[in-house]
Structure prediction request, 331 residues.
Amino acid sequence: MTESIHPTAARLLLAAASLSQEGVSGPSDLARVLGVSPQVATNWMRRGVSKEGMLAAQEKLGANPTWIRTGEGEMASAGVKHTPTEIKDPNSIYKAPVSEPSEIATPDNLDPTTLTGPQRIRASLGPQNLTAETLASVAAVGADVASLWLAGQGPEPTLIQAVALQNTYGVNSVWILKGKGTPGVAVRYDDEWRPVTFKNWHLVPVKGMAQLGDNGYWAEIEYGEGYVATASLDKDAYAVRCKGDSMRPRIKDGEYVVLEPNQPINPGDEVLVKAKDGRVMVKEFVYEAQGKIFLLSTNEAHGKISVERANIEHMHYVGWIAKPSAYRAQS
Prediction:
């Protein structure tokens, strides 16, 4: 079986057969005469001749680019002499074999990191049936390069070119360049804004205020009042207002920590530790060993400390950090 070639390619073949002194019997000869790669000439047969190809035909053969593009006017440019060809059907010059399109590589059937950038471009943009000219205008490359990309060949795309393809076609620029992630971007600039509403906001009581004391310890200096708005799911949650810089930049002066007494504590969690002597610390829990709790401050000036487990009144999980604006005087 065969398929008809693109009309512009048909006219180019007729022009080459008529105007060239070397003889043209197919895309390989056409590529040689015009100084392009055989793959580019073959792509012209299916997708049409690029603007660069028409200009090359004008320069090398004296063909009329307008005639190649539209069929209007004379085959040869003004002043070019030629012997009319006897060929009536360009498909008699070149019969394009019909073949099933190769499977487009995706993360489901092939590791995309093993592909080249042009192969990933073909995999992601092939289903959109783009022309080389359209792709070239988006990526700011020549139509010949774009034609190679659509065939999974050619030079590697640059970051700027990949981002241009992402902005226009919604393909993931990182996937094109590195094969990492998914071919499609998760969010595009024109996506509808559909925020998820969280309905469990409620008020938890402020039970105290702690102020930085010596060696990074906090001292509970007064009983709190009022409430803080939070979405904590712990039924016994409460808040403590913090003063000082022991936890900067994680917790700033005047902010509230919302404590969740019923939440299990794991290494790396932030915790509020209240010692039996009244000291209060908001630290990062590191580990527990040999009857001691080891804690770390995000403020390097205060370093790591250890506290005997027997001297701890309670250690509660820090579930939230609330801004001063979350404070409510009444429930």
In short: DSSP finds ten helices and 13 strands in the chain. The chain has three domains: 2-97, 112-178, 202-328. Residues 129 and 150 are 9 Å apart (CA to CA).
